[in-house]
Amino acid sequence: MVGRTDTGMVRDHNEDSIYFEPDLGLVILADGMGGYNAGEVASGIATQVTAEVMRAQMMATPPHIKTAGSMWPIAHEMLLLSIDRANAMIYQTALEHPQCSGMGTTLIAGLFYNNHLAIAHVGDSRAYRLRGDDFEQLSKDHSFLQEQIDAGLLSEEEARNAPYKNLVTRAVGIAGAVQTELREYQVEPGDVYLFCSDGLSDMLQDETMSQLIKLFIDNLPHACDILLEQANAEGGRDNISAILVKVTRDYSVEVGIWNKFTGWFGSSS
């Protein structure tokens, strides 16, 4: 796992926040919003609280449960609880500090376990998978633009140039409760997963991101750097964040799971 975040070429500060921990198979990325730098506060709380609650739950889970079956119901419950806690903390902070009123954040989290990936997301930060030559978006944006596409009012090409492309319909911390979407995917050795903020996906088309990852698939730190550099070269109109995860071997329960993620995803940097 490798991750990078950058302010971009236009903004004067970075409201994105990233977290990744290979030992836990955990990835978290948040893109904050709100005035007076409150977006930076919201995204920071989101990644910190989600990570802390996930880590506490994983460490408290009895060993016989960790290695029994697919673990998917427990994994999903862990992710939902963690994001609920982050939502409550951001919302309460905004209530207590007027300068943070209205702040919120997108959030996408991935948990790799037992040859599966559970993805929980709110907003328009994205997850992609490169499998062989196929590059596929795994998450679906919670945005006004996506609703227009789903209704057949806009094509994908028209959507790329729409003026309201960053209006999200869901966010963490803007209300007392949050609606988190969960998705589950089978993972295969050789897969590469990209988690990113819209500062990357708005600047680079899917084909470009796919080509850059393929070109540097054996050097993920460089691939991550190149993605951000190319997004900045295209204008860098927003903060840019990316996390890349390469699955290097089978990690099913049959070969021993949970505390042996290190080495299966490669080293972090």
From TrEMBL:
PPM-type phosphatase domain segment(s): 1-247
SUPFAM superfamilies: PP2C-like
A Pfam match: PP2C_2
InterPro entries for this protein: PP2C (IPR015655), PPM-type-like_dom_sf (IPR036457), PPM-type_phosphatase-like_dom (IPR001932)
Gene3D superfamilies in the cross-refs: PPM-type phosphatase domain
PROSITE patterns: PPM_2
Any one Gene Ontology molecular-function term assigned to this protein's record: protein serine/threonine phosphatase activity
Protein name: Stp1/IreP family PP2C-type Ser/Thr phosphatase
Organism encoding this protein: Chitinibacter fontanus
